[in-house]
Every structure is written in structure tokens, then in C-alpha cells.
Structure of Cytochrome P450 2J2-like:
Amino acid sequence: MFSCNATAIKDWSFFLSQILPLVNKSTGLVHRGMEKAEAVTSSVMATALEPDLGGMGASRPPLNSNHTSGMEHVFRYSYSEDDLLYTDYRTPPRDSIPLPKAVLYLLMVALVVVVVAYAIVGHLVKDLVHEFVACRRNMVSIFNSILNLTLRLDMQGILIFLCVVLLLKYLSDVRPKNLPPGPFPLPLIGNMLDISFSDPIGSFNKVFEKYGDVSTLQFGGKNCILLSGYKTFKEAFVEQGDVFSDRASYAVNEKLSKGLGLLYSSGHKWRNQRRFALSTLKNFGVGKKTLENSILQESQYLCEALQTQQGFPVDPHHILNNAVANIICSLVFGHRFEYDDHYFHQILQYSDDAFQLPATNSGRFYNWFPTIMNWLPGKHQTAFNNLYKVKNFIQEEIEKHKQERNRDNPRDYIDCYLEEIETCKDSRAEFTEENLMWCVVDLFGAGTETTTNTLKWAILYMAKYPTVQEKVQAEVDQVIGQTRLPSMEDRVLMPYTYAVIHEIQRFANIIPFAPPRVASKDTTVAGYHIPKGTMVLPLLNPILHDRNEYSTPDQFNPGHFLDENGKFLKRENFIPFSVGKRMCPGEQLARMELFLFFTSLMQKFTINALEGQTLGLERTVGITLGPKPFKIRAVPR
Ligand code: HEM
């Protein structure tokens, strides 16, 4: 009566779209004057098929909700004579019938086991046949043996055929058409084995080198697109800024921030919080002379603290961390902390533990098996506890602000935020005390570790590459001298120092990949299809080590940022702060801190390695990559 090939039947909706109009026609259901019995048939059929008729709802007349009495309900699906029942129905994309992956894998494994077992049994059967022949048993038993053998061989063939079909199905499912290339994912574990536990960044680099700017890895049954290359970054994060502005949600960041704050929030809430943070930081002097003065004051405290070491071996971590943290503290809390405040040092350490967790092995395991990991001890538990202490510390500051604030004269970010909680009418923007706490956690974490680690690398490189240090000092002496403080205006007169700061950031590459984003709709990047909901990992490392851009990408070479006349060379693809809507909101602040702290240190000290020691370039593992603990001598000049 109608033609219906195997492919069409496989596509259930397509099959229905073919068959239903014919069934309706043949039963006369398209006419108003239908018999009640036919209408009942129609109603029952339509109800039974409803789950598969999602696309048809739109073309269906609205249901009569008052259909509880008599036989009225049989007219639920009636329509005018001219209405063709399924005119608006469009065949959905022809995905094959989805089978739960776990079931599929289990079936595959079970079948492989059966086939292997069967091969062994097959040998036994063969031996049996030989035995039968050898023993010249009667014809009946020989006939039975042959029959058995044939049956079993048939079964074996069927099983092998099924295995091949399932394997082909797995292979076609595993990498949907036009998704970027990548290493082949194994059933259940995906590409877990492709990412080294000790050196995840090295592993991402290898994937990048093999597959290029856009590649796919699979974790936990989900595809994750690795994006790199300056052009690709711009295409995705700038030109399609709105599509890629949400953060991917995974177990660790859910636990760390519950989707609040600045770093891991998304959508309307994130947009409003970020806008507010940027404008408030600007009001309190970011990018202006007022903030420059407070950084210069802090750099004097920093130099005094180093001076007290009198050139003895010192690990610069605490001093630098305290100095940098004080800048963000004065913007957010309205005050700074002394360098010998051990409680504050502890809080900084706790904040760092929590901030780095997503990139550690404990964080990775937590993402894969959150329920189990919640019960197991480990670094993740320490980080969660430590975050709790940081939250308490911040909560105390918020309480103090609530008591002491003067509404007419907000002193800092917290005062302004408390004001916003009272005045903001947009409840979806979530200006709440809880969100305030998470925003401060993020400003504190993101604003401290990043700049501290960059300055630690700066100190280490100066000790390791003394000729570079000498040139910087010569320029500092020439432009600033020893009697006045540095200023941001000196930057244009100090191309070498400015180039060195850029090279420190490029070579140290403290954030090799930005926190993952998620595609908010189906899109295309570099010609590849990126389906809605896919996680995207922005790799900054290959961009800062691009061989086509930097002559010696794997060496510390300030020449990368100098032209042939020794003038500063601005490079468009130098993007340690990332690009697009989610790029670092602290870039201006960080650049100011780096220039003023670094030049102040170079003005007052010569940084030396300890005698007989070669400083290494090993890194810690985390969201930001700092140098492993090291000691230097800061000799006053
Ligand atoms: C050398 C110093 C710094 C570097 C290299 C750096 C780099 C970055 C990078 C690469 C991102 C991720 C961007 C993305 O997802 O595409 C980021 C985000 C962020 N940074 Fe920085 N950053 C630095 C300093 C700071 C400072 C001083 C602050 C303090 C205001 C800060 C606050 C933030 C925040 C709040 C985010 C999250 C933004 C969002 O998700 O919307 N950063 N930073």
C-alpha cells in the first residue's frame, strides 16, 4: 500500500509521517462528519503516538480543556476540512534510535566475551567431530554432531555480525559529523588516558600540535573542544562573543561557587555582576592616578620589607603576595594588611588552595566522580575547608562594613555593593549578600595569585638572566634615577623594561588555558560544527608560543617585543589576559601593578641567585602556574 524502506522505518518519526496520513485517510478521519467510533480510534491512536509527535503540536488545533463530560473528548483532534493533519510536520534530523551509551558498551563487551568463548568452544566441537569420525560412531550421532556444529557456527557468525554492527554504531556515534578531529576516545573513559596527570598542559599542547587550532577530546561521555590560535580565538570569543560568554559548569566550580561570583557565573547574573565590578573598580581609581599612588606606596613597603633581609637568602613569595593582595584589599575592603600578619598569610594560602583546585588532579577526579570524592579524603577536602575559612574572613569584613558604612560616602567595593543590594530592582541580577561574598572571593583569588606569580617569575628570570637585569637597571637609572619614584608615564621612555615585562608574561604564561566556556547555541568555528552545550577550553599557551609570531618561542628573549631600532613592538596576538567578553577585567590594574612593582624593585635591588645554585624553571600545577619555591638574594643597590 505504501513504500517504506528500512532506513525510513529506522527513523521512527519519518515512518510515522508516512504512515499516519494514509491511515487517517483510509479511516476517513480527515472529515468533520466522522463517526464517533472512528473518532475514538483517532483519539486513542493520537494519544498513544503523542510522545513521537512533538513536532506536530504546533499544527494541531488547541485542545478543548472542558472535555470531561459525555463523548466530547472524542473531538479533541477534530479540525477543519481544509486542514491537512500533518502539513507543518517536518522530518527531524535523521539521528539513529538513541541507545544509552552504557548499555551499548556493556552489550559490546558481553558480545566480545561470548564470541571469544565461542571460538574456544568451536575448537572443542571440531575435536569432537574428529573423535566421532575416528570412532566411526553410528550415522545418527554423526548427523547430530554436524547439525550442532552448523548451528553453532551460524550463531558465531550472527554474533560476529552483531558485534560489527554495534562497533560501527559506536564509531559513528563517537565523533558526530564535522566535529573537530582529535584522538580516538575509548568506550567509558573517553580521552582520560590522553591527558597526563603530571603534565596536563603538555598533553593539551601535544593534542594541539597534532590536530591544530580546533580539536576534540571526550571526557565523561561529553565532547570538549580545545580552541587555540589567535585567529580562531577572535572568531570564537570576539566575533561570536555572546555565543561563548557562558562558563561551562562542572562539579568543582559548582561546589566552589554555586554558579555565583564573577569567575564561574553565567548569563544575565554574570553580565550585571561584571559590569558593576568594572565600574566600581574604575570609580576607585583603576586606570587613574589615585590607584597609581597607592601602588607606589605599597611598593615602598615592599622594598622596605626586602631591605630588612639585608641580602640574605629569601623566598620572595610571602612579601610579594602580601604586597599584591594589599592592592585588591584596599579596593575591596578599604584597607591593607601588615607584612607580618600571619593570619592574613594563612588566608592568602587558603584562597590559593581553593583557586587552584580545578586544575589539580584532585579537582579532576572530583569532576569525574563527585559523589564518591565527596566521601573520600584528599586535597579537594582541604581546599573546600580552606575556602570555608576564606569565606568566614570575608564575611567578617562584610559585617564590619554593614555596621560602619556611611551611605553618602562609600569607601570601597563592599560599601558600593551593599548599596546596590538595597537599590537594585533587577532580582535576576542577584545583588545579594551571598553573591557579594563570592564576588569578593573571586576578586581576591583572581587578583592576587595571578600578579604575584608573574612577579615571582620576574624575580626568578632576573636572577637567572643577569644580563637582562643589567639592561633594565641601566634604563631605570637613566630614566627614573635613584631619587624619585617610578611613574606610569615613564613607560614610553623605557622600551626595554616594557619589553622585558611583556616577555616575562609571555614566557611565564601563568594561565595556559582559561576556565572553560560553553557554546550557548549551535555554531561553527574554523569551519567545524560546535553543537549547543559543548564545553570549549581556550588554550592560551600555544598562542603565546606561536612559532610564526616569535622567533625563539621557547627562550626568554625580550627581543620578541623590540623592533630593529630598539623601540617597543606591540604584538596583536599577545593575549595573556585572553580576549572577548570574558577577558580579564583586572588587566589594567595588573599592568599597572606589574610595571610599578617591577621598576621599583629594579631601582632598589639587584636580584642574585644563591652561590653555586642554578635556578630551575619548574612550575607548580594549578589554574595559575607559579615557579616552584625558590630563594634569591635581593642585594640593595
Ligand atoms: C598578570 C595578571 C593577570 C592575568 C595574566 C590574568 C588573566 C586572566 C585570564 C586569562 C582570565 C580568563 C579570561 C577568560 O575566561 O577568557 C581572567 C579572568 C579574570 N580575572 Fe584576571 N588576570 C590577571 C590579574 C587579575 C587581577 C589583578 C584581577 C582583579 C581585579 C583579575 C580578575 C579576574 C576576574 C574577576 C576574572 C573572571 C572574569 C570573568 O569570568 O568574567 N585578574 N584573568
User: Anything to note?
Assistant: Residues 262-263, 274, 328, 442-443, 446-447, 450-451, 454, 510-511, 514-515, 538, 576-578, 582-586, 589-590 surround protoporphyrin IX containing FE (CB under 6 Å).
